[in-house]
Structures are given as structure tokens and as C-alpha cells.
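Ligand: zinc ion. Inputs:
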Amino acid sequence: MTRMYCQIFLALLPLSTLFSLPTLGQSYQKIHDKAILVDTHNDILSSSIQNGFDMEKDLTGKTASDLDRFKKGGVDVQIFSIFCDDRYGVGRAFARANQEIDTLYAVAARNPGKMEIVTDPAGLERAVKHHRLAAMMGVEGGHMIENNMDYLDSFYKRGVRYMTLTWNNSTPWATSAMEETSHAYMVTPYGLTDRGKKIVQHMNELGMLVDLSHVGEKTFWDAIHTTTKPVLVSHSSVYALCPVFRNLKDDQIKAIGQNGGVIQVNFYSGFLDSTYPKKLATFMARHKKEIDSMETAHTTEYTIHEYLAKAYPREAASLRPPLSLLIDHIDYIAKMIGVDHVGLGSDFDGIESAPQQLDDVTTYPLITRELLKRGYSAADVEKILGGNFIRVFKANTP
Ligand SMILES: [Zn+2]
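Predicted complex:
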């Protein structure tokens, strides 16, 4: 903003706004600290195992998350994603997921003063009261139960409290957003099969939240008509603002409102900013030779993006949308179905780019500040930061 525009802008501000700005500066941190902040999706567990990182150490500069930085950002409840991709098929995926669960339990056992694995709302509230990170688990992809209901029971017994019906890959009982929309896969969407409906019903009985991030539209509608409990969308954003395959369309958003569920907005630049793919493609084209050499080594697309973001930080930073765009997605959902149905599912450490200023898990207070600036009350902000998720968690707990 140039000086001239700045002066005009200040002249246009009502006096009350000018006086309330310093108050906002002092109070947003207080409101942030008082709220229970729940983030429903973070990939530090699987990515740290893959890269040999230890989240008990200071990983600043290497990752977006570690135990001490969760504390600095005021994160009270973190749901860790239990994840392996579709290269882990039947015979391997369940075992791999269990190794990740083992690791989280080991981290918790070594850090009893800092964190605690919680499995019910009472445990969550207890951990928060004692200023320990309430660590929860969500299985990101139905392929990890290997089409075996006993494995679903086993995950529940080990403390997993949500399962994303699909990741980008479909299961024999549910089609994913990626495979329902991409011609490359040539999958005729089948949504939830009868088996899939039984799985959703069993999740309802257990008290395992049905997570509809990543699922195809057909699966979405079948699941929303099957579930008897409010659903979770752990890390997805708004299609109308950024039309990508796994964002939610307006009719889906409305259905979640009617279901009493909650949409936790994903921070990924590519799911927030419709101009991001073009900017990313230009960036990638500039470094094509380097990418080609990595692709021969069977590296995943995410690893390539992450590598380039670290190798060329200034270029990568120029691709990031403003923080206000994340707030636009939250605002869109709140205006459409009410402030009771939206929250935060950052996807940190599973994404290589988030909006400007949202560099890591210490930056959540900036979201609180932006929400207050948009006119949300402290009570609204508390709902968005975590109250809404906790309501849905309680409604699912037998
Ligand atoms: Zn995901």
C-alpha cells in the first residue's frame, strides 16, 4: 500500500475502529490462549518417521511442527494423521499404520509432562486443564483397514477416533475424490458399496468419527445418508473459492450443516487459491531438470514440491496467497451454514505451502487476530478454534 492510499484508508476508517485496533492487539492473544484450539489434521507423525525426525526436538527450519512449537502456537488438541499411501496394500497398510501408532505412544510415554494421548472428551478436557497437548489419532485412508472390520475395531481400541473413508486412492468399498474425478484412473464412481455402508454404521456404533475429506462426491452423499452421527471433514476447503477436486461444493457444505457436522478448513495454498496451480506450474517448469532427476528415483509429487520449496524459498514464498484468503474460506462456510460448523484442519507437514505468515504451528494466533478483525466475536472464535470439533466429538462418543 502506498503512503497516499494509506492516508485515504485511515481517513475512511470510522473513529471507533481506530480506537479498537490497539485493544484488538492486546486482546487477541488473550482470547487465543483462553480458547481450546483443536487442529484436526497434521502429518508430522508420518513425515517425521519417514525423514527420521524427532518431534520432541526443535525442528524449526525442517518441519512446521514439533512439541514445543505446538505449545507456542496455543495448540491444545492435535489430531495426528496415521497415514501410509496406496503403495502399502493389503498385508502391509494395517501393519504400517500400527507402527505409526506405536511411535506416537512412545513419544507420549517419553514426554508425560508435555502430552497425553486422549480418546474421549473427558480425557481431552483433563489434558487441556493440565496444560498438556491432548494428542489424538485419525487414520487417513480406509485402505488401512484392508477391508477387514476387525482391523477397524483394533484401530478404535488403540485410540484412533476418526477414519477418513478414503485417501486419494479408492478402497473396494468407497471411491475417492481423486479417482471419481480424474480420467487417468478410469474408475466409474461407485460411492459407498453395501460393505462401505456397513463400515460407516459400525464406525457410528464404535464412536469413530466418519471423516469425509478426500472422498468422492458419490461417496460423500452415500455416507451422509448413511451416518446417524455428525460427520467430520478433517482437512478440506471451499470449492466455490478454489475449484479443486477435493474441496467441498455448496450443496455438500449445506448438507454438513444439516447433519450437524463440522468442516475443518485446510491451509494448503493449492486448496485455497485458484491461481496457485498456474503459479506452481511456472515454478516447476523453471526447475524441470532437477525434477526429472528426482522422478527417476520414484519420489512422490509431495516430496518434490517440498524439496523445491526448501531449495528455492524466495520463489516458493512468492507463490503463497495472503492469510486473508484462508479467512475467506472460513467466512464462506460460516455465512452459508453458521459459525457452528467450521474449524481448522491445517494439514501442516503434509503440505509444502501455506498462506503468508502461516509458517508453522506457532502462527495460529494470527488466525484468531484475523477472525476478530473480520468481526467475529470472542465466542465465535472459540467455536471456530475448537469448540465446534469438541461438540461433534461428544456427539459421536457413546
Ligand atoms: Zn489428506
